Amino acid sequence: MKKILVSGGAGYIGSHTVQALAEAGYGPVVLDSLITGHREAVGKDIPFYQGDITDEGLVSEIIKKESISAGIHFAARSLVGESVQKPDLYFEENTAKTNRFVNTLLQCGVNKIVFSSTAAAYGNPKEVPIPEESKTEPINPYGASKLMIEQSLYWLEQAYGLKWMALRYFNAAGAAWDGSLGEDHTPETHLIPLVLKTALEQREAISIFGTDYDTPDGTCIRDYIHVLDLAEAHIRALETLEQGVACGAYNVGTGTGYSVREVIAMAKGVTGIDMPILEAPRREGDPDILVAKVEKIQRVLSWQARYSDLETIIKTAWRWHQKHPHGYGK
Ligand code: UDP
Predict the structure, then answer these.
(1) Under CATH, which architecture does the 3-173+225-252 domain have?
(2) Residue pLDDT tens, the chain, 330 long
(3) Segments of the chain assigned to CATH 3.40.50.720
(4) Three-point CA angle 21, 22, 27, nearest 5°
(5) Quick check: helix, strand or coil at residue 277?
């Protein structure tokens, strides 16, 4: 069985990927600081280590003890707004720490890594759908901190033969089929969980940030990708690296966008609840439209989104929120 070290495996995308790895016959081993992750999101039968990715002693011990053959690296800070307030935190926690983590992997003989990157690496899109070769000009420190890691992985490939893939996620959403895993962020800033929390009457209204965008209904359009599809993309990335195929950055999206109003309308349909809406000013740093070009990942990784129609995304997220109205362990 191939054993995979999953940093940040107790987080939202990490925990779904850990489950998918186990189901696919891999042996995931989780390393998570639990600063933002949840111990309850990782199955009891999965080896779990609490600690920091820069703890070289711990990381090398895990690699030896568990006979790790590759890494999937999720552990990171991921709040755009916070990154603007505290850029130093993001360049330390994301960029600097990843450099040290990858260095430890290489020192211990692990030379394959799948890295969670972001569509925020592009900044304001020059063309839509956005192809991978589009210019990367992040407009916030979060996107910049992730892009710098991609660049470092490229140079580590040249110098030491690192095999890597960076998956540039568009808008991760949805939850496990049975509602056992889902999104639990503090604070929650994402549209779909906030709409569903409004349906549960935990919030008075859902705010639409900007109604004067250059889109058909005036609200922002995003490419929502089901977290189960994202999980599968990581497995395909690992398999493809094993076959020695192209390192590099890959978009993970559907190629189709939905507006904020369409998301809210679908949530009303799925929940049967007519939650109150507030039309609010634009949120800083939001481009009109972010939609992935997905030809590269379809061609090279033979991966295609299977669960990412908006209804399935919202139905699974709703199941999670109904079962866990206050998140994990609460
Ligand atoms: N959004 C909104 N109201 C909210 C949260 C988000 O209108 O309470 C909008 C946001 O401006 C963006 C879209 O929903 O256009 C998706 O935002 P989210 O924070 O979910 O993901 P992001 O695109 O920032 O990664």
Answers:
(1) 3-Layer(aba) Sandwich (3.40)
(2) 999 999 999 999 999 999 999 999 999 999 999 999 999 999 999 999 999 999 999 999 999 999 999 999 999 999 988 999 999 999 999 999 999 999 999 999 999 999 999 999 999 999 999 999 999 999 999 999 999 999 999 999 999 999 999 999 999 999 999 999 999 999 999 999 999 999 999 999 999 999 999 999 999 999 999 999 999 999 999 999 999 878 999 999 999 999 999 999 999 999 999 999 999 999 988 889 999 999 999 999 999 999 999 999 999 999 999 999 999 986
(3) 3-173+225-252
(4) 90
(5) strand
Fold of the CATH domain 191-222+255-323: UDP-galactose 4-epimerase; domain 1 (3.90.25)
Query: Is 142 tagged catalytic?
Result: yes
E-only strand ranges, 214-299: 221-222, 224-226, 248-252, 258-259, 277-280, 289-290
- By the 8 A CB rule, do 113 and 73 touch? yes
With 0.90 as the threshold, say if the pTM is over it.
Answer: yes
Catalytic residue among 142, 213, 224, 258: 142
- The CB of 173 under 6 Å from ligand 1? The reply is no
How crowded is residue 328: how many other Cβ atoms within 10 Å of its Cβ?
15
Residues of the chain with CATH 3.90.25.10: 191-222+255-323
Cα(292) to centroid(ligand 1), Å: 16
Element holding 252 (H helix, E strand): strand 248-252
